[in-house]
Amino acid sequence: MWRADGAKGFLSSTKEHLKNALIVLDHFHVKKYLNDAVDRVRKEELNKARQQNNGELSEILHCNKRFILMQNKVTDKKKDILNKLSSLNERVYKAMLLKEQFLSIYNAINRKAAYTNLRGWIVSAIRSQISSFVELGYKFFRKRHYVLNYFIYKITTAISEGINNKIKKLKRMAYGYRDIKYFLLKIHQHCGLLDPKIST
To answer: What is the gyration radius of the CA atoms in the chain, in angstroms?
Structure first.
């Protein structure tokens, strides 16, 4: 089995050198695809709202609300925004629903049920007439087998992505490192691979 981010080069290399590997399109990258699609719609509708001097909609779609819109958990704040969007902007509301509906596919009891849900989602995305989701619908159609392989081996890159985010944060905090060896040492320390209580 092999976790993948969906990049063409990565997939073609895996197929060439690991011919017996079962490729699983990772949750983290699936969610990123969905969030990017939603964010494209948000930006498009925010620009329209500003041009039309629609203050209420502009406030909801402003970048300071982006985190609430992008988060995967359905919080009270997110419910409130969704309720407002249902009457103020159909495109963003529909985009948010498409995202939530896709993530629910992972709750399917088995691969067969997931396939039925995924097929229905792809049709809905392509028929939505929202360009970013039409593109995503075709993308997930091409990579449907990799999405569904999750139901054979339920693996994710959650741990490695978490470590990667810690490394990025550490680099930003220090505004970069000139000494690579020292940077590697800080990574080990920051990610819990070194015990700070051990004397050297």
So the answer is: 20
Residue 95 has a CB neighbour count (10 Å cut-off) of 27
**Whole-angstrom Cα distance, residue 122 to residue 144?**
10
Nearest C-alpha neighbor of 98 from the set 68, 130, 67, 66: 130
Residues 128, 174: Cα–Cα separation, whole Å: 44
Shared-domain flag, residues 9 and 67: yes
Determine contact, residues 127/94, Cβ cutoff 8 Å: no
Which parts of the chain fold into alpha helices (H)? 8-17, 27-51, 55-61, 66-70, 76-88, 90-103, 111-127, 131-142, 144-148, 158-174, 180-190
| Number of neighbours of residue 182 by Cβ within 10 angstroms | 11
The tally of domains found in the chain comes to: 2
> Each residue of 152-199: pLDDT tens digit?
877 766 666 677 778 888 888 777 777 888 888 777 877 776 555 554
Q: What's residue 158's pLDDT?
A: 62
The residue range of the domain holding 165 is 158-190
